[in-house]
Write a structure and sequence with these properties.
Blueprint: H1 4-13, H2 15-26, H3 30-41, H4 46-86, H5 91-116, H6 119-147
Helix pairs in contact: 1-2, 3-6, 4-5, 4-6
């Protein structure tokens, strides 16, 4: 399971380049990542870059929403188990239900930790965002120069 931001980078640039970017981050070669992404995005239109920026912002919002909702998911899990205890169900029904709820909660725990502590994905996404803003700013400046 990858983080939302890692999935975005893999979707946009491919698994091989994502792996290359993580290796470059480990070697502290962030400028190489910037240059590679810049060369890839430079040929795109401003409309395409704006769509990429919207997709990036949507992924960041999803990642933040996962972190924010985790408290309520945990609270719901505890309340659900306590309610099951209070219902005095047959032991087999109780344990099957608690097992199902626990598996769902375990999935949410893994999802939370993947998205909360994905430092390398956050660093790659920040570089990607900087490149997008840089190229869009250059395009805006070029349009203004052409109008004058």
């Amino acid at each position: 399971m990858r983080s939302v931001l890692g999935k975005l980078i893999q979707h946009k640039f491919g698994h091989e380049r994502y792996t290359m970017y993580t290796e470059k981050l480990n070697k502290q070669e962030s400028m190489d990542i910037f240059c590679d992404i810049y060369a890839d995005l430079m040929s795109q239109s401003s409309e395409s870059l704006n769509e990429d920026l919207k997709e990036l912002l949507g992924s960041v919002q999803t990642s933040i929403r996962i972190s924010r909702n985790f408290f309520y998911i945990s609270l719901g899990y505890v309340v659900g188990v306590l309610m099951l205890v209070g219902l005095n169900l047959l032991p087999i029904v109780f344990w099957v239900t608690v097992g199902i709820i626990s598996l769902c909660y375990l999935y949410k725990v893994v999802e939370f930790f993947r998205n909360r502590y994905c430092d390398r994905d956050v660093r790659i996404v920040l570089i990607y965002k900087i490149v997008l803003f840089h190229i869009l700013d250059e395009m805006c400046m070029n349009r203004k120069e052409n109008q004058i």
